[in-house]
Request: fold
Amino acid sequence: MNDRTKQDHSRAAPARDSLDMVMRYHQETKHHFSRFARSLGYLDWANQPDPFRRYEGSPVFALPLLKPADAPASPLYEDLYRPGAIASVSLTVRSLSRLFEYSLAISAWKQAGEVRWALRSNPSSGNLHPTEAYLLIDDIDGLSPSPGLYHYAAKEHALELRAQWSTERFMRLLQGFPPKAFLVGFASIIWRETWKYGERAFRYCQHDVGHAIGSVRIAAQTLGWRMLLLDGLADDTLAALLGVDRAEDFEGAEREHPDCIAVIWPSDQASGAVTGSTSGVPLFLAADALCDVTGHIWHGRANRLSRDEPVQWEILDQAVVASWKSSTEQKVVQLNHERRYADPSDHPKCLYVGQPSAGQVIRQRRSAVAFDGTTSISAGSFFTMLTRVMPGAERDPPSRAMPWDVLPWEPAVHLALFVHRVDGLVPGLYLLARDPAKLDLLRGATHPQFDWSSVAGCPDSLPLFLLQEGDERALAAELSCRQDIAGDSAFSLGMIAEFESSLRQHGPWFYRRLFWETGLIGQVLYLEAEAAGVRATGIGCFFDDPVHQIMGFNDAGFQSLYHFTTGGPVEDPRLTTLPPYALDH
Ligand SMILES: Cc1cc2nc3c(=O)[nH]c(=O)nc-3n(C[C@H](O)[C@H](O)[C@H](O)COP(=O)(O)O)c2cc1C
Reply:
């Protein structure tokens, strides 16, 4: 974004003030029926930020462009969710290429008349793509001969070397992690979103981080790799590690806000053994290897994205400061080794005939711009989709279901569902408690007249309840900034976060994490929709408090943070689709 995004501004305001500030930011960036959150109110096209960051002057390593059938080939989509069904692929420049292709790469170019724009494997609010990705990895063939920090250049599908690390320091940094572990980090160019959305943009950046975490976690799963967010790190440390604190490399360029970093490693259970053993994985990095990252050899300078200086939004800048994580917690989580199926005939391949591969589903993912208002989905598909957003019964994150094992905190987001067209389900307002332990809390906070009746045919493992019957199509559209996509769908939903209690329990920096959790839910549902033969769209524009009134929430205990909709898409025939990188790809 700009200089105000720098970590210097974060130096700890008292926690209480920060909490108030974050709550105030949230309150003041709500959309109301009578007034939208503040933005310029028009799009300054001449100053539109470039969606592609480059580090000019840094060595570039092209990732191989792989055809769908090239190795490593994709597993079936359904296998992503079968523990142990996917053997680990070894870490090479090809498997890295797949990791980025399935998560953050360009998936197609769209053209209307003379205008052409890129779509990516991950969705993004307004297609503005504020999230930049970094890779910190040991030397592997095809990349730099020493360990290095790279920036992922999506337009080129290439890695730009930002910093060279010594092997010794890299080993120290990753001590305590599984063999072959490497790191993927994210940072947001907030200006890309403020350009369009003004003050509410900080929320959208966080949604997008959640989607990016989800895309990389799911891409890692296609390769039999695991991923865990190193959530114990302070943001200053993260900024230094990713090099986004280096004023000299950002002179005249828009700054990046450090978001998070995750460790990825091959789960290596190829023997088929059921180990059942556990070991600890730190949620932080070795402090002695982190200090003096300035000692590295750095390369490249960030390109300027807009003609003019970014427009400032004071309350957003204050939220950046207030939600900065200034503490490091040296937490270790126990890692349950993935159980492999002892008998592969457990899931015979013939069941999968005609089923799509994960790569296919990921590549074809698109947001619907309109729904037909007629397509329904089966109750079975609906229940499967909801099952996939359940974190799993166990409370220890790494033993949770994929992709929820990436988030090392207790789930804090539930779903309020507007069911319009799900065969066998009465239309109405439903609630899915993603953490069944929170049911009483949710019941206590919602309207007393809600039914809370059980849903016929719903699997026992799904805490799904009908709150009230009724045709909610007009209401759902009205609440989602009057966007028809929320009413013309099979179902739409609001993601309801345990808001104030989470911020008080963890700290104001958890504000960003609540949005990340919603983005991850969205990412799972986007792919689920494609796999079920329908389509989805994330909805960042909704009227906050009217949603809360429908639910009966009358304080900041629960807040809706993100909306989502799924249905039968109407394609726009005026658009031409072009391949992502080369015509023969
Ligand atoms: C956080 C988020 C919020 C979004 N909000 C809306 C919205 O309010 N209305 C809408 O039509 N699309 C919305 N979208 C969809 C984006 O416009 C879409 O992802 C983007 O144009 C890229 O297209 P793709 O998803 O097909 O790659 C949202 C997407 C995300 C990730």
In short: The pocket of flavin mononucleotide is lined by residues 119, 123-127, 204, 207-208, 211, 366-367, 483, 485, 537-541 (CB under 6 Å).
